[in-house]
Records
---
Amino acid sequence: MTTRHDGGPGVRIDVTGLTKRFGSVRAVEDLSFTVEPGVVTGFAGPNGAGKTTAMRMILGLVAPTSGTATIGGKRYAELRRPSQTVGAVLDASAFHPDHTARDHLRIYRTMGRHPESRVDELLDRMGLAHAADRRTRTFSTGMRQRLSLATALLGDPRVLLLDEPSNGLDPEGIAWLRRFLRGLADEGRTVLVSSHVLSEMQQVVDDIVMISKGRLVAAGPLREMERDLPATVLVRSPDAAELRAALLSAGGGRTRVETVSDDGLRVYGMRDADIADLAGSKGLRVYGLTAEEAGLERLFFRLTGDGDPAPRTALHAHGPPPAAVPPQATTPEGNRR
Ligand SMILES: Nc1ncnc2c1ncn2[C@@H]1O[C@H](COP(=O)(O)OP(=O)(O)OP(=O)(O)O)[C@@H](O)[C@H]1O
């Protein structure tokens, strides 16, 4: 077993040929990937791609139609002390509204037979000590996410599976979550975190498993995938048609130009300064130039062949990103309520 981190033995997740059909719905189809310890692995894909179903199969909550998922070489049902091996958050809202944060953790602590000291330790670590005796009905989304994570960590598990943990978090909450996930990986843990917001995931993950319509699209280190993407520049110009012709003519076959809106072009294979110079020399107006980073969204759309996503950096041509979806009704220990 390998780990890219020095902090103790790591536990790998192996998913092999995993398939789940619900009647005629192919939720997960012949999915194979590994999740390594010591890094944060993003499980990315649009709504309905099959992320939750795959995670539920890894956790033994849904029986696969075929294929296997193992944690440290064992299926979930074969683990001797599951809550000391795997912590999971599939739903950050599954709390009894009248229980306090401390009540909640004490119940799960008792069920998992974890040391009593874990409750206060985790309330502290999650920044919830001040709210320990408040009823969870008064908790904000961010506080609920933190309490879910605390529950998942009660058994000090080496493996964490988190389904859309950034859902509903404000920018400060997302920044906290990023630091938290990085800390878990730095402790040598195996961290699989799903999200349908690819741009958000890009800032925290080391490895990525990308799925679409239940199938694997790509898997591997994010940096390597990004390297394969050509740099692009978004250009906003009221003379877009003329500029497009000039770019193609000057680029001599090395430059590709995509029309993204009435006055928006995406240019492949030419630097922003060269585009500005060319436009100036032809007397064409340019109102905006944005060098785009090789983003996960572009990678995803390129790999799935579904066309490029709406440009968000400069042109805002196609409206806001999709809304977050509510998580599923499952407790951190995986039992439906
Ligand atoms: N119990 C079920 N019965 C029938 N169909 C299901 C069931 N659970 C999931 N599905 C279907 O399987 C597909 C994958 O759903 P899943 O929730 O795993 O996707 P997801 O990637 O987690 O999406 P989201 O980001 O929206 O949560 C969807 O078409 C969904 O409707």
Note: Residues 171-186 form the longest helix (16 residues).
---
Amino acid sequence: MVPTGPRHRPAGPVAAAARVATALSLAAVVAVVAVEPTVGWGDLAWVPLVAGLLLGLPHGAVDHLVPARRLGRRPPGTALFALGYAVVAVLAWLAFRAAPGPALLVFVALSVWHFGTGETAFADLRAGRPVQRQATASLVLGGLVLLVPLARGADDAAPVLAAVVPGAGTLPAAVPVTVLAVVLPAAAALAAERLLSGRWLEAAEVAVLLVLVLVVPPLAAFGVWFGCWHAVRHVARVLAADPAGDADPAAGRLAAPLRRFALAAALPTAAVLAVLAWVWSAADGWRGFLAAGLPLLAALTLPHALVVAWLDRAEGDAPAGRGPAAWQRVRPW
Ligand SMILES: CC1=C(/C=C/C(C)=C/C=C/C(C)=C/C=O)C(C)(C)CCC1
Ligand SMILES: [Fe+2]
């Protein structure tokens, strides 16, 4: 697909998908927040976590097709790329098995970066700006949606972490306190900065996320954010890069691109679900399921984060109107 337009990628194909994704993600988060002061999540707080993790699975399922869609590659290139993707995932899984402690730290750091850059990239595209690197904002946003729930939910996460990293001691109590003391004021400052620069929707979103991570049981907060916010917004970007061209998404017709996405995502998602079903059957409750599933999640996250980082670079470096040559400069292989 060759982008067109004078200065940067037009909001066209992204705009409709981004609007729907914004509405869906905000509605889901507000609904989950509303449950807490009314009926309360109580003992069911693990449901949004596990459901959110499962719901979020397909968002990475067409990663192996993204460069092909962007660059118009033919199947042999795509097959090779999918193979490389799988090799990176297997290597990450082996690293997790060999050194779970350091691997978990790297996984959390990578996740903070991936979640934060996902937020800023989506906001840029939605506003019709080229994707820009915003390191501080990314760290703050990634910290807000992952580190704050982990810090607030340290007691819930402890048995999972103990199972993933056998023999590791408990985290000093100062760690979660420091995380909260740094990330929460930083997020409030980011909301204020966005508001002062006239980016009121982004400011409101940071405020909504602050309420989410402070009000809802922490791991449930992370689950709904992951499945209904991060994944939904990423899928919107994928729909905008629909292989059939810009016409459908640009005209706001999302059903056909969504169908093509669902078709392409079905097999990889089914394969991961089959592995997870086996993990669930062997696990003793949801904590055991998480402990066994985390290395798998981490393994899939590494190639996923790399592909999305490439996509961000492509959507920042290859502004519209420069033709395929501009895209070739940012080929991933
Ligand atoms: C450590 C830990 C968690 C961390 C999950 C992470 C870090 C998920 C990252 C996923 C990514 C980056 C997906 C890519 O799109 C849970 C399950 C919340 C709870 C238990 C302890
Ligand atoms: Fe992701």
Note: The radius of gyration is 20 Å.
